[in-house]
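thread: overnight batch results

M.L. [08:02]
morning all. the overnight job finished for the chain we discussed friday. pasting input first so we're all looking at the same thing
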Amino acid sequence: MEGSRRPQRRRCIVTQESKSTDTTVTGTAQVKRGMAEMLKGGVIMDVVTPEQAKIAEDAGAVAVMALERVPADIR
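M.L. [08:03]
and the structure it wrote out:
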């Protein structure tokens, strides 16, 4: 597959402004819908090292979870 280029993925950041500077708004419906839309149709990978995260991203993972140990290895 040398020479083939993958289409560049769009990265989306959802922000919400608050009129008050001392109030933090988290977990709004808009943020939750935006997150679900970004992850739709993709794979979330469990990784332990930065190298694994890079491999997962190159393979098309939409998100990675950096863990101390992968749950499958905890048995």
